[in-house]
Amino acid sequence: MKDRIFRVNLTDLTTSVEDVPEAWAGHGGRGLTSTIIAAEVDPTCHPLGPNNKLVFAPGLLSGTVAANSGRMSVGGKSPLTGTIKEANAGGTSAQLLARCGCKALILEGQPKADTWYSLAVTPEGVTISEEAELIGKGNFAVLESLATRTEDKPAVICIGPAGEMKMASANISVKDPDGGIRSSGRGGLGAVMGSKRVKFITVTPGDGKVAIAEPDKFKEANRTFAKSLVDHPVSQALGQYGTNVLVNIINESGGLPTRNFTQGQFAGHEKISGETMHDTIKERGGKVKHNCHAGCVIQCSQVYNDLKGEKLTSGFEYESIWALGADCCVDNLDQIAEADNIMDDLGIDSIETSVAFGVAMEAGVLEFGDGAGVLRILKDDVASGTGLGRIIGNGAGSVGRAYGVTRVPVVKNQAIPAYDPRAIKGIGITYATSTQGADHTMGYTIATNILNVGGAVDPLSKEGQVELSRNLQIATAAIDSTGMCLFIAFAALDNEQCLPSLIDLINARFGIALTADDVTNLGKYILKTEREFNLKAGFTNLDDRLPEFFYTEAVAPHNVVFDFSGEEIDTFWNF
Amino acid sequence: MIHVKVKLFAYFRENRFREEDRDLAEHTRVMDIVDGLGIDRDEVGVLMINSRHCSFETELQTGDILAIFPVIGGG
């Protein structure tokens, strides 16, 4: 099936299907969303106004049988950061969009009236319908209702109440193969979807298939690629313990941000660790392994049950567990799981929201460790959009401003995730220089700073960190364009066959001849395109800095501050 | 004699322990502990003493906390 661009104008409620412009042909995933946003969106526009656009793009390999290729990118101007934004997730939408021949789905404009809409994507194009029944409903109710409304098992992309209320940390949810939820979590793109008054999108490819230019080469490359993933020990540990295996090692390193980033180790780490989670899941009859999209050979996801053996949450990730756990000092994994599920249902970023709770605890809104209080505020305030609920739903920076807190862990107003940049300096460079605000996935230096994957760079030394972050950010931008899960990077860093076989897959899919240099250049192009957008939006190099307290408050146990000068950080962009 | 705490993580705990205090001979190296536990060195991803990375050759000192992790990742 030929790839095309599907466009929906919400101002006049028209749709179109267009040929792919030459300049977009070689792009997919993040590279494509960022290219389109840079080309079509005025960087100074209001993110929630009619001039912003929301772009959905499967990766270059999505919809094929390539292992781990089921990530869909969503892009737009972020209402949280004011920068360009791309957030990707698994689920079934990337594969089914690709099978519709939809290279990108662009939502633009804004309805003038209060009506809500849903969109249905098929290989023929997009149809718009008015939606009333599911407005105000949580994500799980939306998925449940749509499962009975349609018989052809569409992919579902939706927003919860947080997105409807245009909270700056609202996410976009994607149905996974078992009816659970994966989230394009960061940066508030759910609010952009809410601003376009689109509650959900279904994707139904029918018999649509992705064309492979050279099927035999493709099959062979996929065999090598999948083997490199399966064989890597990190993949195996991810299957067994999930991403939460990191709690104990990051705690041991002294880089686990605790009590709103005042300490680097959490006394309750063992109770919230991947090891404890694994044992609890087994005891209660949950699922230790679970794939967020068909074709994933790593299976880092899981289903976590409550004491009665009923599903409490799934896709229970390290970042969310760290944030409510160590950062808010809640050492009760069941409370964290319940909060995780509520946040999934509300459609709100579990990193941003949980870090916002840490700041709220520092402000005295509730006590550190008050897991019951977190649950209460999520249900009573965030869900219904009270004043407090909106302050928290607008993120950590919003809480800091509302309550006059100065220790607010954000970069470009986006909450810093689960690694303290004072004790793990490479990740501080990533937080500072990322085109999208603080985000560990943009250049995961933890691999090399802590995990000894892809070499070893001392986490407490400044030496080599800028270069490490730069190389990883370039590689990540390229990987984010393929539709691949970022966890292929562990194998790519260590196994010499992994990356060449990935390039072979792309070449066989399209009948082209990319080289490793082309892929690196793609990563560089994406970063520069995104930065150019930010500069036009009014950002400068002075925004590439960490909050002041990281430079002045030493964190235990290493008693270190973040000590990169502005000039040193700025060398990141020397490429 | 030196006194050291040894901590194990992930599947290294299976049929072993979570943490254990040990009295050891002077000049005991990290590799001696790892080998003594029957852990294949190839499976070791990260070694830390007192929250700093170390190597198999590092000599333990009294009061040290040694943490032994298999190859793991996440994010």
In short:
Chain A is 40% helix and 15% strand.
Given helix and strand content, the structural type of chain A is alpha+beta
Side by side, the strands of the main sheet of chain A go: 2-1-6-3-4-5
Spatial extent as radius of gyration of chain A: 22 Å
Distance between the termini of chain B: 40 Å
Mean pLDDT of chain B: 97
Walkthrough of the structure:
Chain A is of the alpha+beta class. Chain A is about 40% helix and about 15% strand. Chain A contains 23 helices and 17 strands. A 6-stranded mixed sheet of chain A has the order 2-1-6-3-4-5. Chain A has a 6-stranded mixed sheet with strand order 8-7-12-9-10-11. A 3-stranded antiparallel sheet of chain A has the order 13-14-15. The model of chain A has no long low-confidence stretch (mean pLDDT about 95). With about 80 residues, chain B is mainly beta. Chain B has 1 helix and 5 strands; from the N terminus they run E-E-H-E-E-E. Chain B has a 5-stranded mixed sheet with strand order 2-1-5-3-4, with no helix packed on it. In chain B, about 30% of the residues are buried. Chains A and B meet through helix 7 and helix 8 of A and strand 3, strand 4 and strand 5 of B.
Which terms would index this structure?
heterodimer; A: 575 residues; alpha+beta; six-stranded mixed β-sheet; 23 helices; B: 75 residues; mainly beta; five-stranded mixed β-sheet; 5 strands; globular
Strand and helix layout:
The complex is a heterodimer of chains A (575) and B (75).
Chain A: E1 4-9, E2 14-19, H1 29-40, E3 54-58, E4 72-77, E5 84-89, H2 93-99, E6 102-108, E7 116-122, E8 125-131, H3 139-149, E9 155-158, H4 161-164, E10 172-175, E11 181-184, H5 189-195, E12 198-203, H6 215-231, H7 233-241, H8 246-253, H9 274-283, E13 287-290, E14 301-305, E15 311-314, H10 318-327, H11 333-346, H12 350-363, H13 371-382, H14 387-393, H15 396-403, E16 410-411, E17 414-415, H16 425-433, H17 446-449, H18 465-482, H19 488-494, H20 498-510, H21 516-536, H22 549-552, H23 566-570
Parallel strand pairs in A: 1-6, 7-12
Antiparallel strand pairs in A: 1-2, 3-4, 3-6, 4-5, 7-8, 9-10, 9-12, 10-11, 13-14, 14-15, 16-17
Chain B: E1 2-8, E2 19-24, H1 30-36, E3 44-49, E4 52-53, E5 65-70
Parallel strand pairs in B: 1-5
Antiparallel strand pairs in B: 1-2, 3-4, 3-5
